[in-house]
TrEMBL record, chain B:
Residues annotated as transmembrane: none
The protein's assembly and partners: Heterodimer of an alpha and a beta subunit.
UniProt entry keywords in alphabetical sequence: Electron transport, Transport
Coiled coil (UniProt feature): none
Protein task: The electron transfer flavoprotein serves as a specific electron acceptor for other dehydrogenases. It transfers the electrons to the main respiratory chain via ETF-ubiquinone oxidoreductase (ETF dehydrogenase).
Cofactor section: FAD
GO terms for cellular component: cytosol
Entry protein name: Electron transfer flavoprotein subunit beta
Leader sequence segment: none
Family membership: Belongs to the ETF beta-subunit/FixA family.
Pfam families (alphabetical): ETF
GO terms assigned for molecular function: electron transfer activity
Amino acid sequence: MFELTDDQRALVEVSRDFAAEFLAPDALEWDRTKHFPVDVLAKAGGLGMGGMYVREDVGGSGLSRLDAALIIEALAAGCPTVASYISIHNMVAWMIDRYGSQEQRERFLPELCEMTVLGSYCLTEPGAGSDAAALTTRAVRDGEEYVLDGVKQFISGAGASGVYIVMARTGDAASGASGITAFLVERDAAGLSFGPNEAKMGWNAQPTRPVILEGVRVPVTHRLGGEGQGFRIAMSGLNGGRINIGASSLGGAQSALDRTLQYMSERTAFGKRLDQFQALQFSVADMVTELEAARLLLWRAADALDRKAPDAVRWCAMAKRLATDTGFAVANQALQLHGGYGYLAEYGIEKLVRDLRVHQILEGTNEIMKMVIARDVIGR
Amino acid sequence: MDIAVLIKQVPDTYGERRLHETDWSLDRAATDAVIDEIDTRGVELALTLTEQHGGEVTAVTMGPDGATDALRKALAMGAAKAVHITDPALAGSDAVATSAVLAAALRQLDVDLIVTGNESTDGRSAAVPAMLAERLGLPAVTSVRALTVDGDTLTAERVVEGGWARIQAPLPAVVSVNEKIAEPRYPNFKGIMSAKKKPVTTLTLADLGVDADRVGAAGSATRAVDGAPRPPRTGGHTITDDGSAGAQAARYLIERKVL
Ligand SMILES: Cc1cc2nc3c(=O)[nH]c(=O)nc-3n(C[C@H](O)[C@H](O)[C@H](O)COP(=O)(O)OP(=O)(O)OC[C@H]3O[C@@H](n4cnc5c(N)ncnc54)[C@H](O)[C@@H]3O)c2cc1C
């Protein structure tokens, strides 16, 4: 469990090379210009990054969650924002693979796996974030179709994505989690539109937009799973999503740390190299230790998910909480150790801090992670 | 057309490479071992040709047990199978001995084309491809930057001093490629995961019928008698721009035959 297999080392090597060639050189520019590199995503899809744990009959790579976490971490060393989008895309692809009909799998997954078509996950609404089961987007059955009305907020990839998994209420207003159903909505559906790309602190290399549904007609054949199963489907997708977002934080933080070590070996103050001050050495020792601890927990959680352990949800929540908090803290400390240069865009460290900050908020805030963990150990 | 690609595991050029001071042989433990970059380009050429003309690619290496990693990389890129020639007696073989062993293995393969790198980044003798062709009685087309195949004829652009020459040769042939030949593809995840399931044949000297005294350090005709570590980098050449820097830089490069 502590040693990677030959295959895993090969997967990491390719992903790291890919990130170094296709992500890292442009990451700062994409951040500055808010460019979503769909062409690079299609290249990633060609390597098998679009359906990492989707079954192979529809073009998936059939890898494990641990494999995927290693790949996402390697990609995040080039750009955590792109790595995290790839994570969301994989969550969408996996949900279709796991809960979709054979017809849905064959229709949607080949292109999603190649990343020639991208996916978005639409759960959050303006009035329902952490309390996602309070969502109010409605889906009303009309013959062989459902009619969807509502607004989804903060949707990653929106506008660029071709496929949207939309969680909507089919039950009555008081039906809670059990009245929610998942739907596959295609970008060209009449009545589907997108709000403006949000101006935001980080994650600029992928769009975040409201998704507006006005009388969107979705055929019954595009319902994902049964009526009332949508919330469970949405939550089960998030387990892998949380591991991958944690892995993305680790990769971004590791890259900040590696660059800091390099910087400290070159920069001098008071006649000494920065890496010769014991106070700063101790800071580096803590960064390395905490990052490794978070990584260990993350691998442990990915393994629990691979084994379908009954307490996998708690492991995923613990790993996400620790990896995203640690990742942000390490990146922030890397900025501190760079002094004023860390604050300049040119050095790329402040971008990592901005990008990793949101990992503590999305895929369930870290407070919600603590709720999940406490619920498991204390009971409701 | 079936193609054999010769690949070699070499010390990573990113690392500091070192020689043993006793016999001036390469200290292979000092750095990570990787597939020689030039050989990934050879694999790429071979894969492109089989995609166009059908057939399979076989990756062939002679090297210690750990060289399977280099073979696995070629298999992950898309080679169908691999041959690993390994025998304790092979350590220290020079180009003459190496070419004898490789020739013995390639005679068993029956391929239409043998692709090699023009020179390895460690030994850099650049002699093995031509020696191999001689031993096999095949045409040798070395330092190739572009290659096409039509029926049983290959047409290659061979880099020569000051330019390039178009060469045609009948198949089978031995071709050595330079770094311009092709950008190696990234192995995709399916390739990586299937690499382990592809057949790798291990051959010893006995399997090849090669006499152990003709190979290895003892059986080699050449021996390193002296050596020295590379001197540290010096300051380099500075050109001050008085308006003619471009011309000066070009002259400097031409004098050193870089341009
Ligand atoms: C850049 C970005 C991209 C996103 N992408 C997507 C996407 O693709 N798809 C999608 O569906 N959503 C997405 N989100 C939405 C994200 O998942 C939500 O923002 C998140 O779940 C929090 O919801 P909220 O913003 O409504 O905050 P709120 O739920 O209003 O929370 C506010 C604060 O209160 C805390 N809090 C709330 N309830 C409790 C409680 N019971 N106990 C303790 N503390 C509590 C929260 O932790 C938080 O600190 C994205 C968000 C961002 C910023």
